[in-house]
Amino acid sequence: MRKTLTALLGASVLILAACGNDDTGAAHNDADVTFAQQMIPHHQQAIEMSELAETRAASPEVKDLAADIKGAQDPEIETMTGWLESWGEDLPGGSEHGGHDTSDTPGMMSEDEMAELEAASGAAFDRMFLTMMIEHHEGAIDMAKTEQEDGEYPDAIALAEEIEKTQSAEITTMNELLGS
């Protein structure tokens, strides 16, 4: 029994050491920080847009797509927040519609555009949501490509690759739903 307890304690210490020493201590650069600081509010706005679809969209396909977007981007926000915290970098602000100055982040919707989307419903909402989310995703893909080119932190580069792949596929789906 004592040997088992000692072995379990030893394993626990190794696991905790590994968790405390995860890859966030790896080299990162300004591009990695910028990627996370811009992508967090970008994802937050996509989630806000997706939450509007729950009650305003007419199409079940739009509602399903919105749920998929929200489901993918929530955990990515948590991951990027963890990176910034472990790097000792500032988290993005917490104001409305993504908490970020939209002027320097590709694909972000303005306050007016968000208000217009919020006021829409039914088929008009569906078309507006899909059109705006395509633009939003294109901005995320641009940021992801920049991270892949200029970033240093392996996990951030891997996330950027996944964002580019996933959101490119979602753009294809959205264009199909629009009949484009």
Automatic annotation (TrEMBL):
Pfam families: DUF305 (PF03713). Residues 32-178 form the DUF305 domain. The keyword Signal applies. Residues 1-17 form the signal peptide. Keywords: Signal. It comes from the Bacteria. The keyword Transferase does not apply. This is DUF305 domain-containing protein.
